[in-house]
Structure prediction request, 407 residues.
Amino acid sequence: MLEGFWIRNYKSLKQVGLGTAFPQFVYVEDLSAMLPYDLGTSTLITGVSGSGKSSVLDALGFISDCYSHGIDVACGKRGGYEAVYSHGGKGTMSFGFHYRHPDESAAATYAVSVGYVKNKAPYIESELIAYRNGKESFPIAFLQNGQKTIRYLASDERLGGDDLTRVEFTDLKHLGLAALESHPKYPVWSSLRHFFESWSVDDFLVDTTNGLDLTQLKPHENLRGHKLTQFIRYLIDQFSDDTESIMNQIVSGIPNLVSVLLDNTNRERPMLSFVMEGISIPIPISLLSESTIRLFSCALRLEEPNRAPLVTFDNPESGLDRMHCWYLGERFRKFDNSAIGSQLFVNTQSSQLADAMHPQNVWIFGRDQNGFTVVERAADLMLPPDDSGVPKNIEANWFSEMFEDRI
Prediction:
């Protein structure tokens, strides 16, 4: 579980934090920006346009690119380091992730700082993995780059800073986490690596102009693919015996849909069609409305057997009418209440989607007088709370009534 994270000096995110983070680290400049709440199974962020919502998802993708391809590629895809560094920011660009491995009682924080010398290339300045023991935090790995390119690794959690084992590492362009060998005493290392490799940070592109041809697929970095066609091809290849049953699991979440038919007799050209209420002849997916296809694609991602550890949606309401938004919100709510090994992260400007979530899981983004992002949790803005800090009298349309003007 990702229990929280902070982002500093990335685009409009001069310093924001969602969920739990260790405030002792020097990366955190203003402790008031670190709100002490664990993220749940589902997290929804909303707010005015330009408030930094999409930048949060892009920051997750930035770290994923640093892990897989290196800092030069991560910056290059976004116009260079100076294009992503906060205008008027001070200090390094840094990111922190508070993460709990299911086999460990204590959560760990992974923090990375990106350095930059003007007119030169950016580099990974330092990385830190630390556990919290009571109120104290102690590092199990401190990876320091620079001229000496020396990284330090603790061999035992009881050792202090003077007893760290020195490990030489000369690569300034890639995250050292990717190079650390798995350690039986610290399973969080391999778990974090899987997290950065596997999270899903983009939404499907729904292309209806080519009839959703499943044969002309281009290679993609993500096994699941970025287009709906690629994802369906992935499901057929990976779960051939269960693909049709997977698709029929989402039938109840799409208005007027009776069943989904998959004709996979021709492996080179499988066909997908839909049986709709009141229509006797199945309709090919290429003839459905874009709204129905988009809702179908979102539901597929939520029902995938081998979900990514973090499933994200960026403005999933695009192209959906009010009824479809309501059904999608129900899907998100059910995901929120399920005990599964995956998390959901939604960026939206739809009050209907926010209505479906609990106020504890809704974070409202805004901008300060300097144009930087500020974040508030909806539950903290709702009065009066009960003794447990949970808002009372949560109506079905609670967000629409109380915070419509905030988006």
Observations:
- The chain has two domains: 2-37+49-198, 205-307.
